[in-house]
Amino acid sequence: MKIKGLLVAASMLPMVAACDGYAPGGTATGDRAITDQPAPGLDMAVEIPFESFTLDNGLRVVVHEDRKAPVVAVSVWYHVGSKDEPEGKTGFAHLFEHLMFNGTENYDDEFFKPFEEVGATGMNGTTWFDRTNYFATVPTPALDMALWMESDRMGHLLGAVSQSKLDEQRGVVQNEKRQGDNQPFGTVQYRQLEGLFPPGHPYRHSTIGSMADLDAASLEDVKEWFRTYYGAANAVLVLAGDIDGATARPLVEKYFGDIAAGPALRRHKAWVPVKTTNTVEEMFDRVPNARLYRNWAAAPRTERDAHMLRLAADVLGGGKTSRLYQALVYERQLASEVSVQLQPFELASNFEIQIDLKDGADAGEVEAIVDDVMADFLRDGPTPDEVSRAKTVIIAGVVRGLEEVGGFGGKAVALAQGALYAGDPGFYGTVLDWLNAAGTGDVTRAARTWLEPGHYQLSVRPYPEYTTAEAGADRSRLPAVGALPELSFPAVSEATLANGMTVVLATRVTVPVVNVALQFDAGYAADQGRSLGTSSFTLAMLDEGTATRSALDISAETDRLGASLSTGSNLDMSQVRLSALKPNLAPSLDLMADVVRNPAFDTVEIDRLKQRWMAQIAREKAQPVQLALRTLPPLLYGEGHAYAIPYTGSGTEASIGALGRDDLAGFHRDWLRPDNATVYVVGDITMDEALPLLETAFGDWQAPAGPVPAKNIADVALPPAPRVIIMDKPGSPQSLILAGHLLPPTGAADALELDTANDILGGEFTARVNMNLREDKGWAYGAYTINFDARGQRMWLVYAPVQTDRTRDSIRELLSEFNSYLGQGLLGGRPASAEELSRMVQTKTNSLPGQFETSGAVLGALLSGARFDRPYDYPAMLKGRYDALALDAVRGAANAHIRPGALTWLIVGDRSRIEKEIRDLDLGTVEIWDQNGVPIE
């Protein structure tokens, strides 16, 4: 898997919820009458036109044409996952997925390289219980290359798989497992699966597997797994984007037609364990709060009842208006978070209730309330309004997700899932029809059926005869890639409202959705002189009630409109964002304006949010990365600087506890004002359409007296010597190595040179730091260097979560990489090379068309541009700026700004195991802190 960015820590670990406390679910079904009332759905057409065909070797192919951008999503789904692992080989499906990125018989190199060169986006591979998939979105001229690569690893892999590659990726996966287990609640999944599924069930073990089984995986296991499951007849290929069926078929036949079908496979089609009694279990772990899970095995994902249960989940715990949220968070204030969801799987889905208890809450009282709410729901069912709102929320989410052709959840995913699980690429439409037609009785019947015992079924069908075509592709070299397209960024226009507010608009006609953002020059830095966390807390309170709408009114109205309303801040800016369906734009803007202009800051709601906020701070302190982001900035910027705050923006328990209504109203008055705001609009709309609606919503909004406050983001000198802090986390299986110092602002003249220098050193998957610690040494799941964004000096962060026994060695390797990069190693070091620069420029420029495919990405570019005083067409300028980069300038930026001798090191881990070896490194004076950031020694 390819993972990049700061919060990469445990991104792909398989997490499935089950029963920490599997308690009674209401009364028996019996002969209770069901009142079946209609519930209007969201009357919107959702279409993904497609063509499909099957090669003679059994490969199923689905093609969707979408010409909005010159890119094609290539998605290959194999019908094999962790459920197919025999006893003693758990984790093998996921381990094999990693091996698929390590070269083939005809291309024995890192799989990512040719894709990075053409600017592929959304590239990754994932493993789950029922399937393994590989996907990337490439510029249209690179389609031949992508098909060659995918077909080569489908048909020509085994000759390139070696013991050394197996050992290397085994280490990477084991570090991934350690990293996931190191998170709060990270080991809960193992108990959940064993509690929900009986011995012998394919879902009883986790996808990540056990350390012992991973150690036991042999080279012959790898080859047998490939021969059994990676045949053409066990796969679905989806091509979506700038492609049509007539073009696709000869290409697919050329590259895939000579690949063997693979053996006939016997597989379960459904297996829902029958559970007639409740099981209650308890465990203890290092977590920031108590949490209650309750799970039921339910209908498989292709059955109608599974989707009725999605509606039931939304009614019970889908948001603020849901029954369990109101009962536990609003009314009784026993919980900080409640969620209910259906996790759909092929053999048996998982209906899950998850509740984060507040400190001191009575778990027995929480369980009793859940019992009562479930009993009422199973007895009376949902109301028509609840079902209608749930439909709107779910379908609106589907509409937004289908803007993208590939990635983790775009059109290619919808088509592939239908083909793989239901034998019908258009199965998504069947699901939407089921949801739209559902009445209250349908939801009630499904809940009564599946929140009590389930069933098991096995279907056996004759396996078709397959033949193999003659070889059609030249396997001696990669196909030539044609001229790659340049970014076509939409035109941007400006207008001014009656009160002087600037409107910035870009028309992007893809789906009937309009995205609106109101951006204020505030952010976390505006907390200066106030309680830490004021900015984030104030923004969070905006949708917790206005002068005329309660928090529940706002949530309900948002659901009815099919809108999405969010508020938040980054370091420099605060934003209120609206994603609205175009037919509902006017009332959605009315709601947005009310939230922005007339927040009530009700003391009851403030107290409710404080309880949840405190729980969030506690969770941050339990997460190693977030704990470091809370701790490092104050050390780097120093007292009095606006950035010397937790980078999470959440503040501290003391600062949040001291916040009152007057503090929030004061922040709103000083910062969230029309003379400090700009309106950004991107989507299916023109300026002539947008202006009258924006005038109605914001045109009469007047600024208060007095100027907007100032923020101190003055430059800070780098320290003369390193500083080393060990933050003790007893029992931690990993050490999280972080180090940082300050760089010039994101908007500095040489920012592009410095960003490129960082990308080569540690900013990309194939950069030096990750290739060393992950691919070469196998000590980390991922290691990076990150340039944070900021208007003032920004933070350069070294990030390396490593196995505990390699903490000292990893720090040595990091310093060696840094010094060599700056020309300070043996024989003059190894500064950035022309080849590395060329590869990086190719990656960055060729990815631009795919990077700005969605209207949300365009909106993000406009907001970021305003933050750093960039022109609206800055994305369109990037190719020229990258092409003009000189190697000497990139090296010069690195040498001018990267200073290993000025780093502040923060190492989070088990002090008893790492302190001595860190002191032996003699980096500088070593300090010992506890997890609250309080010095111990």
TrEMBL record:
Signal sequence, start to end: 1-17
Higher taxonomy: Bacteria, Pseudomonadati, Pseudomonadota, Alphaproteobacteria, Kordiimonadales
Location of the Peptidase M16 N-terminal domain: 60-184, 503-629
The record, for InterPro entries, names:
Metalloenz_LuxS/M16, MPP/UQCRC_Complex, Pept_M16_N, Peptidase_M16_C
Limits of the Peptidase M16 C-terminal domain: 218-392, 660-825
Q: Any idea what this protein is called?
A: Zinc protease
Molecular function terms, GO-annotated: metal ion binding; peptidase activity
Pfam families the record matches = Peptidase_M16 (PF00675), Peptidase_M16_C (PF05193)
Gene Ontology biological process: proteolysis
Q: What keywords does the record list, in alphabetical order?
A: Hydrolase, Protease, Signal
Q: Which SUPFAM superfamilies match?
A: LuxS/MPP-like metallohydrolase
UniProt xrefs under PANTHER family = METALLOPROTEASE (PTHR11851), PROCESSING PROTEASE (PTHR11851:SF224)
Q: Which domain of life is it from?
A: Bacteria
